[in-house]
Specification:
By secondary structure, the chain is of the alpha/beta class. The chain has two domains: 159 residues, Response regulator (Rossmann fold); 282 residues, pyruvate-formate lyase- activating enzyme (Alpha-Beta Horseshoe). 44% of the residues lie in helices and 15% in strands. The strands form three sheets. Strands 2-1-3-4-5-6-7 form a seven-stranded mixed β-sheet, with helices on both faces. Strands 8-11-12-13-14-15 form a six-stranded parallel β-sheet, sandwiched between helices. Strand 3, helix 4 and strand 4 form a beta-alpha-beta unit. Helix 3 runs parallel beside helix 4, helix 9 runs parallel beside helix 10 and helix 17 runs parallel beside helix 19. It is globular and about 70 Å long.
Length: 495
Amino acid sequence: MRVGLVAKGLENLGLESISAVCKTHGHKVKLFFDPDLFGDTDNVFNSQKLNKKLNLDNHIINEIIRSKTEILGFSVYSPNLAWVLKIAKEVKLRRDIPIVFGGIHPTLVPTTVLKNQYVDYVICGEGEYPFLELINAIEKGLPISKIKNLCYKSNGTVITNSLRPPIDLNKLPLIDKDLFGGWIEQKDYLLTAGRGCPFSCSYCCESYLNKIYNFKYHRKRTVESVIKELKVMKKKFKFKRVYFFDPIFFSDKTWILKFLKQYRKHINVPFKCEGHVKFIDRELAIVLKKSKCYGMDIGIQNINQDLREKIMDRQETNEDLKKGLTICDKVGLRYDIDHLFGIPGETEKDHFDSAMFYSNLKNLNRIKVFYLMYFPKIKILDSALKSGILNQKDVEKINLGEMKSYTSGGYVNQNMDNKIMIRYEKVFRMLPSSPFKKMLIINNNLLDYVPRALTFLIQFAKSIINKDYRFRFYIKRYLKIIPKVINILHLEKIK
């Protein structure tokens, strides 16, 4: 069967895995892709004006119509729901082909998504084998009532099939890295060593996956499985760096020490990963550094421990933060920090105190600023309703995917005005580069006169000086893709 997969933004590991399973079972797969240049999926370069000029919506729709695709699968997360519905609608009006939505948003609210007349099926949770079984059933005219993880409409009623257990990740075929060929250079190789997260933070979708899978969703592949993938792909793509995209890469110390020993022996290229202070000790930090870890992303979000514990369900203490980051500083392990705006109950003082804490860190490479984005059914919605940040109509809009993104500014926090948030956003961008950190924080009101673009350029320069490979990846990506997108738009215009 000819399968079409639709995605927007960066490389999508989930679709690469689905494509690998489909191809292994004899199906043909084609990607329809918008790199979303300067869009909401990019927290590095973000410009709505440029994004509007460079979007590929019409091209994708026309390409699908011109193709011989027999079934269309969409990767759907809350911020892109409006976009995928637009594409699905335009395709459905011109070609009556089955349309399948999978991903975190349909998993959270499958019934709401299926109310849309342009969506035929929803897959909840892990999608590789439900999608394969659905394709086979449609191709052979077989019933779909027993396909686990599948939701569909029957005589106007939404049918929700039962959820299958988490799959054995070690038995999946190697992901289809050729799916994004022409769009993604595999010199910076992206993969996950497992799925899920050991924590259930109130604002994160992982908490819902933990809930529906009875806390069995978080698991690691074997060391042998991950090393096998890296060896095969290194030979094929000759990649120069690796990025482990697990929510927390080293939550199991025994596993990570065993893995890093094999990684040094067989792969031995610089890598970056997602980390957590509760799992950092001196032994692990030394081994990470020895194994060419050039950076970690660490989510702190806010230094107010009470806010983190009671509103965000985060388990680390401020002492954990100090201990873990001090170890990184002493060992020479560089890291980025995620900081969040829009948390219910936050105050200006919380951001001031966070900035003062960050100012004492020695190996801090970059502070990445995000605005809290609400997903359906997650616990923090209760706190947002109670504080007045959201009302019930807002919750209904969130279920429909009508929310602001991480980068474009979240819902207005009643305790702070947006001017203060923008001021501290500038502080965090400039802080790692400033020789006068405390002065910058104390006199932050002067930043009202500093353009946002300048603070970005300062952050940009810092990342280049620090040889931030991941930041360079974004630059190279834009230099390669912008001419390609312009050419596609030109060709589409003259057809």
